[in-house]
Amino acid sequence: MDIPYTVQPRPDTGLYNAKVGIWLFLASEVMLFGALFSSYILLRVGAPEGNWPLGWLNVPIGTVNTLVLITSSITTVMAWASLKMNQFGKFKLYHALTLCLAMTFVAIKSYEYHDKFTHYEITMADGRIFDGHLVKNAPDHIVIDGRAVADRKELFNLHAAKDHSHQQITLKRSEIKKLENYGPWHNTYLAIYFTLTGLHALHVIGGAIVIGFLWARGDRLWKTDPERFTNRIEISGLFWHFVDLVWIFLFPILYLL
Amino acid sequence: MNSHAPEHFSLHVRRYLYVFYALLFGTVITVGASYIPFGHHTLNIAVALFIAICKASLVACYFMHLISERKMIYGVLAFTVFFFLGLMFLTVWSFGDFPRHTVTR
After folding, report:
1. Which residue segments constitute the domains of chain A, with CATH numbers given?
2. What is the Cα gyration radius of chain A?
């Protein structure tokens, strides 16, 4: 039995079924991300004065990733428009570009995550605080590329920090009281940062898998039922644009403000 | 003109490119505006969110074709907007419950 309304619009909705389905799914996604945005607002407003991190993320890298995702959005819509114009070759090219851009986004995000997981705040037994990236991890000592911090509050607003000079510092393990990297457990800012960007990255990976399948194997449908294949590309494209749309809000609130 | 004709889509393509350029410009403006001291940090947040809303509207209206969609989709989105705004309203409303500046480290 054929699945009904894959191409023809359903009389009561005026749309093919997959389109209604994806919009209902996207509506639920708005509420999912909405709940996390709401958590972000509550955590930020509830943070004690001066304790909300500013300047912890690399703005040029975040900007490049934003441009990558925006470019992937145009290649996605161009892939769909190419099919509408019966230009299958162009569709293959545009969607190959979309996949490359998706992988670029994930690669850049992975680099940013790695940077945070190798960045440590170290409290010594005598109360001194050091901050920097781990260079060497020996059994009796560690070496960081960082700086000594007079007051822990200096670490929160990096825009206001006057001295950004780093040097290699060797610290004896026996003198270290606490050694903690900048993972999601470090503070509420990083907890919500990793939750929001991690969930978003999962959406990027999921979308890329679907687009990759439609590009590599699913395109056989173009020969037998081109309209149905074009609709599938439209549906995957709607999801991809939603992923772009979420990042448009994530970028300023996490990187710039 | 038949809306499914290839000529019709070449017009769409031109529009998509304009939207793409606007999104790139919007990103540059967002980053630039974040470095301008507007006097109060809240104002910087408002400006950044305003630009983000403009960019998101462009993506939704043109790339997601909401500018010429069926009533059914608008109905679904009306419910979504209602509940999303409700969620944000409740979030802002709850600010009054915060024991602000009582915790020190």
Report:
1. 20-45+56-116+186-256 (1.20.120.80), 120-181 (2.30.30)
2. 24
Alpha-carbon distance A141 to B25, whole Å? 49
Residue A75: both structure tokens together: 């290649």
User: In chain A, what residues touch B73 (CB-CB under 8 Å)?
Assistant: 15, 19-20, 23
Question: Which helix H or strand E contains A112, and what residues bound it?
Answer: helix A88-117
**Residue B59 to residue A69: CA distance in whole angstroms:** 12
Q: Say if the Cβ atoms of B70 and A24 lie within 8 Å.
A: no
Question: Looking at CA atoms only, how far is residue B75 from chain A in angstroms?
Answer: 10
Q: How far is CA B81 from CA A19, A134, B24, B66, in A?
A: 19, 46, 26, 14
pTM of the predicted structure, to 2 decimals: 0.91
pLDDT category at B1 given cuts 50, 70, 90 is very low
CB contact under 8 A, B72 and A81: no
Q: What is the ipTM of this complex?
A: 0.90
pLDDT at A107 over 90: yes
Which residues numbered 16-75 in A keep a CB inside 8 Å of some CB on B?
19-20, 23-24, 27, 30-31, 34-35, 37-38, 41-42, 45-46, 48-49, 51, 59, 63, 66-67, 70-71, 73-74
Q: Does residue A43 contact residue B95 with C-beta atoms inside 8 Å?
A: no
**What mean pLDDT do residues A7-32 have?**
92
| Mean pLDDT of all residues in A98-108 | 97
* DSSP H/E element including A145: strand A141-149
Q: Is the pLDDT score of B2 beyond 50? A: no
